[in-house]
TrEMBL record:
This is Uncharacterized protein. GO terms for cellular component: cytosol; nucleus; perinuclear region of cytoplasm. Transmembrane segments: none annotated. Keywords: GTPase activation, Leucine-rich repeat, Repeat. One of its GO terms (molecular function) is GTPase activator activity. InterPro entries: Leu-rich_rpt (IPR001611), LRR_dom_sf (IPR032675), RanGap (IPR027038). Coiled coil: none annotated. It comes from the Eukaryota. It comes from Podila verticillata NRRL 6337.
Length: 92
């Protein structure tokens, strides 16, 4: 993933200081998303908290069909959250 920082004063733009924060921000956006169907977040080291945020968001998102979280650095909690993500993807 390529991330470019912009002036946070612009409408709709947020400043991210870590990849976990990025995952959380994406998760918040996914809660109201109705158009995005594929997201590739592999190899981003988003960690347990990031994966958990994404898994929680997918409980209310009905448009995302593919979320690739391969090769992210996670522990047991992140692995459990990845299983929840997989279940959400199977249901859609």
């Amino acid at each position: 993933m390529h991330i470019t920082t912009t002036d946070p004063a612009h409408s709709g733009v947020f400043q991210v200081t870590s990849l976990a924060q990025l995952a959380h921000a994406l998760a918040e956006a996914l809660k109201t998303n109705s158009t995005l169907i594929t997201m590739d977040l592999q190899k981003n080291s988003i960690g347990d908290n990031g994966v958990q945020s994404l898994a929680e968001a997918l409980k209310t998102n009905s448009s995302l069909a593919i979320l690739d979280l391969q090769y992210n650095t996670t522990g047991d909690k992140g692995a459990q959250a990845q299983q929840q993500v997989s279940q959400c993807m199977i249901e859609y």
